[in-house]
Amino acid sequence: TAGYLYQAHLRAELTRELGVSWREVHRGAAEIAGVPDATLRAFSRRRREIEARMAERGGTSRRSAEIAALETRKRKDYGVRPAEQRGEWRERAKESGLDIDTVFRWRTTPERLGEATLFARVESKLTAERSTFARRHLIEEIAAAHRRGATVDKVERLADRFLAREQIVELGEARPANAPGFAPSEPLYTTREVIALEERLVKEAEMHSQRTLAVATPSTTDAALASDPALADEQREMVRRLALGGEGTVFVVGRAGAGKTRALRPMREAFEASGVEVIGASVQNTAARILEQEAGVRSTSLTRLLYEADVQGFGLPRRGVVVVDEAAMASTRALTRLQDVAARDQAKLLLIGDPEQLPAIEHPGAFRALVDRLGAIELREVRRLRDPVERAAVELVRSGRGSSALAAYSERDRLTLAGAVSDLEAMVVGDRHVAQRAGEDAIMLARTRARTARLNELAQGVRLAEGELGEVSIAVGAGRIHVGDRVVTRVNRGGDSPVHNRERWIVEAIDSGARTMTLRHLAEQDRVVALDAGYLDRRPGDAVGSLELGYAITKYGAQG
Question: How confident is the model at residue 492 (pLDDT cuts 50, 70, 90)?
Fold first, then answer.
């Protein structure tokens, strides 16, 4: 936040003193308009030093850049006078193509940002991905909204006026006790629009749950259950309640590995045998594909489902069934839109998830709130794990008693301690490498993208040193991909040979001249795709490239 304030104040002073204009603000900072990119690169000596050190170390990730930046940082020489440097600066600028007159002739339309317009823009940004915000988040958005800059005093005054408006609500005692990313004493705020959105979702879900929609016949339900005798009693009860209950909106809460998806197959068979269409969706394409493969439910991403049903007007299956898996990861806005469309098309909604697992990234908490108010069918027995200690540990972690779970692992000599993070990284990468050599599909999970980038770089380095990767490689995004690497695709592609975001693959072939790549899917071995330069050169907004190394992924990337 201090950086956003500094950059805004700097822009304001330079605009006032020199009359320069600015490019778009990105993460709080902006470049002067009219200065060529070549000049910016010529004056970015630190960047070149960092890139040179990264080349020496063989690193390509953001973590490597951080390490290189620390290693090449020099103590500033505060004795140097600007007058002594101006000649060298001017020469460097001239060589890079800077025409200073062009800079001062460059004029963008002056900002005429009225307070009402500014506040509307800032409020939209603040609540686009979060339900609550702190004053520091507000200050960042106000500072970034002023392309021509604003003094610190002005930003602070605007923040105070923004928070004093009637549509802003300080949560006070309603503040979550363990709100992630906030200091314990930091006041949290929300908007009346967000509160109204949440109230509307709950009200509409309550109304929709009272409608009688999409009921299968008892005979088709019995036949579907008879086809899978291995189902447990609670899974059978879940199928009967979903197929025969008739409620318009139904919630299922199941622990990880409780067999939620497995039980959806006989439910789908019962509905379809009764003439009811069933479709599915999940927040992530990878989870949607698993729903399709394991339950036979034709599925897509929740974003695409809403786009086709709401924006393109295709609608949901009339009086059909829509299954949303991993529904706890769906945002309040997405669930509200889904509820609206379901009510319009008289479709039954089955929302399946676990509020104790990963929440939504944007506007979390809706699934938990709905379950608390409307109740849910529960699957309590974890079937994926057969070891009783593992089952107990999962339940302890789920209920917030992680230290007890660690103690249980320690008693069974299942807990390994490391003296430093670097030691831990080396152990995890080494374990993954041994497991892969044994033919296992081992993957490393981490909380942050920076950590996964570091683990990926280490894992690739080990495989290169062992001669397990091909010599042919190609640059994609911020790194290099070799033949034999495990990768994750980050850009969706349709057509006859689709590629989905966050799918995991093995690189089978690379043509560096044509800039093409052939991938084989890790889970579906008969699925092979060819990627051309157009795909490889795309830059998604939330990733450094269209492909990333896939030895380590974030917990969110692995969900489902």
Answer: confident
